[in-house]
Design goal:
Number of strands: 27
Distance between the termini: 35 Å
Number of helices: 12
Helix content: 10-25%
Strand content: 25-35%
Structural class: alpha+beta
Shape: globular
Radius of gyration: 25 Å
């Protein structure tokens, strides 16, 4: 999603990867491309600032490959060149007309910025503008004012990935190849701002503090709403207390700030529904390559659901999905050989950039070579293998129930006890940390981190299988169905699926001379997600829990492609805080952004696992 100062993920992945890949090629751009800058007028008269890099060799025509962004197309000035062009260095050397544009209302472009503006259906006047129309108008101008071959492509990571998605509805006929990469899709259900109604505190606080402050006169920078510095995010946000004080000085005092807009809509109302791009991905004509990462802490949901929405709503489409072992934008890095404790056995980026991304654009924009990539290409962690499927999830992926039982057991057998439950006390004053690392920035590796720090806590429940007698491969969506009761009137539910390594396990050293990595007993997180309990029946109409009443809570986790090796165990952990990744739930049915300190209360929560109330998790087992 978003670049921010406290959580470094996007500052690295979007700026460094997408804009400054291949530092060694700094001179290549200046030697092979001519840069021009242009204000392009949209249908409503607003002018968008655009940088155009045209190959100096004019002996042929070239396709256009563009990126639109709210993060600045710097460096500004016709004599100041980007270090690298395009999604990867291979495409830069292939020669395209590379176009970069500041989105409406951002940096040097005119107009008013709105965070997400999916297509307006049945436009009635030139005042009906959105990202689709801005892309259309930009392409129309470029076709008339550059020496091109009549074909246009678009790509981008994160927010620019969303702009790529938004270009698809009512696309310009010349737009023939689009690659939305880690695109935002629905910010209340699974991307960035909220996950299933739970507010992602640390990321949003850091990002929005600097994203939409006052813009400088020259349009090249923004002033932060405030400055904050901390080395321990957990302690900082715990000391910060209730979030209601964030809506006043010295924090987000501007009532028009995006933070204030975001916190003013704590339910899935028209504000969020109107920003959901998925509903607009109908009758899509361009070839589409959706790209995402299994370790993407921002928009894993967005990539998967963007692909799914096109598949469902655009019959006969030319739509493909690639999911690799990447963090947010990691596929744009010069190389990618490992992450956290994973070692992938080689550079997965070389394969993606050369065999998929470059061939995709070369084929559809230049008619060069072939592109016979599978419908779905996913990297399976645990085995370190790329797998190809003709449908997602795969046809031979079967939802299989694994039941929670007494003494921390997890098995395929439904419990027989007439009455059985495991309880824990959730205390907002002592929330469960999302990571064992003390840092002011988000620890990106939390998505594959050892969870033993959490399993030792009394407010985290763990259920695990016996040692596996054969490999177990999960490919598809995970759904947890919990039967719960509580003393409070609201609670969060975080469900984790974990790969428990056998005692005495090791991973070979990544480099010669290094020691093998000791993995004995390691509880490697594979997938996790949160649901704010009051949204268990509807994201638009929250409901309180009745004291001690048993109710069903369904938590949908994002898809996965992972093999639990023979001798490993499958573990499920359940907890009710994930701090400060997610804000604290007072465990009282209330608008959390209006809660006072006195509203935060302990709650006794029970997870039931008996013959009648059988809590279980549906795992997508490959048969």
């Amino acid at each position: 999603m978003k670049i921010f100062v406290f959580c470094s993920c996007l500052l690295i992945s979007v700026m460094s990867f997408a804009q400054n890949v291949a530092v060694q090629d700094t001179g290549f751009v200046r030697s092979n491309y001519k840069k021009t800058e242009q204000y392009i007028t949209m249908r409503d008269g607003v002018k968008l600032f655009t940088a155009i890099y045209t190959p100096i060799d004019s002996s042929q025509t070239y396709p256009i490959l563009m990126q639109r962004t709210p993060y600045s197309i710097r460096p500004y000035g016709t004599n100041n060149y980007r270090r690298s062009l395009g999604p990867n260095a291979n495409l830069m050397r292939e020669k395209y007309i590379f176009v970069y544009q500041d989105a409406r209302g951002r940096y040097k472009s005119e107009g008013t910025f709105r965070e997400m503006t999916p297509a307006i259906p049945n436009k009635k006047s030139k005042k009906d503008v959105d990202e689709s129309s801005d892309t259309y108008d930009t392409i129309e101008w470029l076709l008339k004012h550059t020496k091109n071959n009549g074909k246009v492509g678009q790509s981008g990571i994160s927010f620019p990935g969303y702009y790529s998605s938004a270009a698809l509805p009512d696309a310009h006929p010349a737009l023939v190849a689009v690659s939305p990469q880690a695109p935002m899709s629905d910010e209340f259900i699974g991307d960035d701002c909220y996950h299933n109604g739970a507010f992602f505190l640390m990321d949003n606080f850091g990002f929005y503090s600097g994203f939409d402050g006052p813009k400088s006169a020259d349009g090249q920078s923004y002033q932060s709403h405030f400055q904050a510095s901390y080395s321990d995010a957990y302690q900082y946000f715990l000391d910060f207390g209730p979030l209601k004080k964030s809506n006043a000085a010295p924090y987000f005092a501007d009532p028009n700030s995006i933070w204030r807009q975001t916190t003013a809509h704590p339910v899935y109302d028209e504000f969020w529904q109107s920003r959901n791009i998925k509903n607009h991905l109908k009758n899509i004509k361009p070839a589409v390559l959706v790209v995402g990462g299994w370790f993407d802490a921002e928009d894993l949901y967005g990539a998967l659901k963007t692909y799914a929405a096109i598949e469902k709503q655009s019959p006969g489409n030319n739509n493909r999905l690639v999911m690799g072992p990447w963090t947010h934008g990691g596929w744009a890095a010069p190389e990618w050989k490992g992450f956290a404790q994973y070692q992938f056995g080689g550079d997965v980026n070389k394969y993606f950039q050369e065999e998929i991304e470059t061939k995709f654009f070369n084929f559809y924009l230049k008619g060069k070579g072939s592109f016979d990539q599978a419908e779905v290409t996913v990297f399976e962690t645990g085995t370190n293998k790329w797998k190809n499927y003709d449908v997602w999830p795969p046809k031979n992926s079967q939802a299989t129930a694994y039941y929670l039982d007494t003494k921390g057991k997890l098995s395929a057998s439904k419990p027989a006890a007439a009455k059985s439950a495991t309880e824990y006390e959730s205390d907002p004053a002592k929330p469960v940390p999302y990571t064992n690392v003390i840092s002011g920035r988000r620890n990106n590796e939390y998505m594959a981190e050892d969870q033993r720090f959490a399993s030792r806590r009394p407010d985290v429940l763990s259920f695990q299988t016996d040692s596996l007698t054969e490999d177990l491969t999960l490919t598809g969506e995970i759904v947890a169905n919990l039967m719960v009761s509580m003393t409070g009137s609201d609670a969060d539910f975080i469900v984790k699926v974990i790969d428990v390594w056998p005692i005495n396990s090791t991973i070979p050293a990544a480099k010669e001379g290094e020691r093998p990595v000791q993995m004995g007993g390691y509880q490697q997180m594979v997938r996790a997600e949160v649901l704010r309990g009051k949204f268990r029946n509807s994201f638009s109409k929250p409901e309180p829990f009745a004291k001690d009443k048993v109710e069903k809570v369904t938590v949908k986790l994002n898809e996965v492609a992972h093999t639990f090796k023979k001798g490993h165990r499958v573990m499920v952990q359940i907890q009710s805080s994930w701090f400060p990744l997610v804000d604290r739930n007072p465990q009282k049915f209330i608008n959390i952004f209006e809660a006072n300190e006195a509203d935060f209360q302990k709650s006794r929560i029970a997870i039931h696992h008996d013959a009648t109330n059988s809590s279980h998790i549906m795992l997508p087992v490959m048969r």
